[in-house]
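Lab channel / #folding
Pinned by the channel admin:
"Please post every new chain as: sequence first, then the structure tokens as a reply. Keep commentary short and put observations after the output so the thread stays searchable."

First post following the new format, from NK:
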Amino acid sequence: MIAAVLGLLAAASYGSADFLGGLAARRLAPLRVTAIAAASGLVLLALLLLVVPGTASTSAVGWGLLSGVAGAVALALLYACLALGPMSILSPLTAVVSAVVPVAVGLAQGSRLGGAGWAGIALALVAVVLVGFVPDPAAPRPSARGLLMALGAGAGIGLVLVFLDRTPDDSGLVPLVANRATNLVLTGGTVLVLLVVARARTRRRARAHPQDGPHLLPLRRALGLAVACGVADSGANVLILVGLRVGDLTVMSVLTALYSAATVVLAAVVLRERLTRSQVGGLVLALGAAALLALD
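Reply from TO:
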């Protein structure tokens, strides 16, 4: 029961992070948003580490580093495949794969579920597809490249949970700090390289079209959204780590994959985006799946 609650809270936090990051990416480059979010998340985890100490063993740091690499690669592939589109197909595909990978690993490790648990997993996977899929007759079919990238992104996200599940119980938040530091180094380093390469071009544009005052406020808002995105994302990671230690990898991975539901709900409430019938049905199935997994 506790693990199921933590999984739902983690999904809500992840979905909120995606929503905030998506808004920030309307004003900043997605890679910059990722780097800023990694930095703010690392600060939060470093502060929490003072309150929740852990043993920085080789296993804790090593699995944390691997999860950070997997997460960074997954984000890169996710942004790339969504840029190719169509998002309505590739996004739910990524979410489903992100749940299937750790479920398969959990079952291989001896995880056993009852009838309610299997029913919950089935409902959750269907819910992920319904919530994320927005029918668009005019949308192009996904290319083989886009499909492969979506599969890779989902596998990477799933591996993050698998690697965190292998961290020692006495490690506290040490693996997450290693995870976030690795993410920051990879994404931040890439941003710096891109900035250096484009430095001359940017200077020419700045001289030709200098920024004035009105553009500062949107930039500040975007920076604030990116920072909030990192805080929400790191909060989700903490909830997942605790859930993995008190519960089951299979259950946590399936519930976490419902993060898109939170994103959809926030978009409907904040941005007044209309929900389709399939999305409403997916939200209902998500609640049913959570109840079944909690009862298993």
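NK: The chain has one domain: 2-207+216-295.
TO: also worth noting, DSSP finds twelve helices and no strands in the chain.
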